[in-house]
Amino acid sequence: MREQARTAGKLFRIGLAAGRSTPGDRLRRWGLFCAAAAVAFVTLATVATVATYHGRETRSDARGPVITFGEGAALLYREGIDSVGSRPVSVVFVHPLTSGAPLPAGVARWPDPGEVLLSPELVRTGRGEGILNRYGRYAGTVTRDGLVTPSERIAYVRVAVAPPKDDPRWMGVSAFGSGGGATGEMADQPSVTSPVLALWALTGLPALALAVVAARVGSRTRDRRSSLLQALGGTWRHRTIVNLGEAAIPAVLGTLTAFVPYAVASVQDIRLAPTGYILDHHDVWAAWPAAMASAVVSLLVVLGIVVGTHRVTRDGMSTRPASFTSRVPAWRTAVFGVGVALVLTSQYMPRKAQLAVFTCGTVVMWAFLSSVVALLTRHLGSWLADNGKRRGHAGRMIGGRWTHAHPGVIVRLALAMVIGIGIVAQMQVWTSRLGVRSQAAVATHQRIKDTVIEVTAGGMTASETDRFRSSLPAGSIVLNRTFYDPGAPREPWTTIGGSCRDLSVLRVTCDGDTTATTGSGARSAMVEELRRWYGDVRFARAPRVSVKPDGTQSLLVVTAAPGQLGAVKQAAFTLPNPSVQVEALGGNWWGSSRARLPNWIQLFGVTGILFILVAGSMSAAAEFVRVRHALAPLAVLTGHRRVFRSVTSWHLTVPLLISTVVTGVVTAWHSVFFIALVQEGSVSWTVLGLGVMACAVVSLAVGFLGARAAAREADQWRPAAD
Known about the structure:
Layout lengths: L1 H20 L3 H39 L1 E4 L6 E10 L2 E10 L18 E4 L1 H7 L4 H4 L2 E5 L12 E5 L12 E6 L16 H24 L2 H13 L4 H32 L2 E3 L4 E3 L1 H6 L1 H21 L21 H16 L5 H41 L2 H12 L1 H42 L3 E5 L5 H9 L6 E8 L8 E6 L1 H4 L4 E4 L3 E4 L6 H10 L2 E5 L11 E6 L6 H9 L7 E4 L8 H39 L2 H5 L3 H37 L6 H32 L6
Parallel strand pairs: 3-6, 4-5, 12-15
Antiparallel strand pairs: 1-7, 2-3, 2-7, 4-6, 8-9, 10-16, 10-17, 11-12, 11-16, 13-14, 14-15
Helix pairs in contact: 1-2, 1-7, 2-5, 2-7, 2-9, 2-18, 5-11, 5-13, 5-18, 6-7, 7-9, 10-11, 11-12, 11-13, 11-20, 12-20, 13-18, 13-20, 13-21, 18-21, 20-21
């Protein structure tokens, strides 16, 4: 046992020494450092995500209302929604029935009638829009323990008068906490698997690709060492110890470096751009034990990649290393086929599982697509070598033989481009899918600003409507909107009613006692926007405007000038029985959770692209080091330097161009299939074309720079003993 430990120590020290003396050691050390930091960063981000979800749920439970339908209600409770800019705001209306009415977490006491408590972030972002007076008199802020996140925007409004007893929107509350209903941001929170899947698909996969590339930088020397150890009788355990010794120090340092952002996030709140979300440092701090355990796992994963990518044949009959530089393992293409199968069969899965299966298949497919490309280029290399030999083209023959003998080089170079194009395409498709209605809302706002405002009310008599009208800015008119759905086969329609004087603002004229029509001349831009959002719009004459409490009607406020949305909201929310929602036409899509998801996809995707850029740069640099040493003697043998451009073109540029074309085709198919699966979004062929063009330029640049590096090395080359 002691002898085995002594041998293991010697082998580990050999690995440490090899890491400081092998060719390209500095590049590999930095590569492993960056790879370990990237994998640990994604792992720690996963821990922070899970911890944040747990903290949000805990705080949500502490303030959730316990609804009662009996006589034990001590508080009347109603929820509404609003917005500040494009960000949603949760509005909670309350009316205590007893002096001992329950309080949610974050509220020390209920304010007086007509007063309001606001969250700090709502005060900060809404001060310019008059948020301090929008719902009533400002009476203070909600404390931190009553917010699911420091960036939450929530308001507790105590109504000025007792609400009607027959209003079904008001619910009786007996207590807060104990797993009460979700409020605020928690009302539409997706499961934790959604951000974790997005994180690993857009950021985790590039981090693992970076680890693979870093592990194989300068791999030829390590492959020779592995074959030597096997020839000397060493087992896989001995080779593992040497490889671990070589990679241990940079991997450990990279993992420790990843703790720096985590440590910062655990002692102070961090705002995540471009989402605007504030990460609660208390949640991150509480997850330190899990973070340390996950960091150990990420370190083991990186070291496992280092060991797994340096293997030799298992039959014991040859000392030639069975690395990816000599052949493409068949299991890689098989796994790629599994990924494609998951993507194809996702449409037949249950609805809730379709996206998860599709995402898993996508990750597997993109991870191993470069291996399939390498298999194709290996056969291409064989054909190029034969063709160059028959035609006497030295550069084509040498480049083809290198491509055939070293497909792993093409894999590492193509990996960055393949995953990079995939990430960019997915970001574009997801953004188009989640932002179609939001983009329509923005277009509406550009055409008519916020001059048409919809006020959703649970019921409003004609006298209450007149009171609301008197609080509006000068020149505003009030109409009512009624939705009719007669059922199949007839199509639903929407009727907009008001007085003839008010309808004339929309260039609508009265036609008889009950109907109204748009004129034969130019239609009002507001009418056109109403048709875009409501479909079949009809107009009716209504001398007195009111709202039925059955949910089929709402109010439309048309202002004389844009910029009056804040004043209309204040008029609606300060009514005795405030409205539930006040938004500009289409405005509810500006701040929806679906509209905010592209920001998270952008955050994960940009981080993943940064990892991919590091992997591509490192792989290209390593290839330049190899090419310049290998090609330098050819200047003496051929008598000219044109051979450098020829060899690098056929060995690097042509296979990478083929990889780009294959990736573009697969990306187009994958994007179209995803849109067909979710039945939303669109493919931007411009974005995809620009991505393919960028990769084509990179392919040309790699060949040119490789030839240039070899030419410079040739000027200094001198024969040396091997």
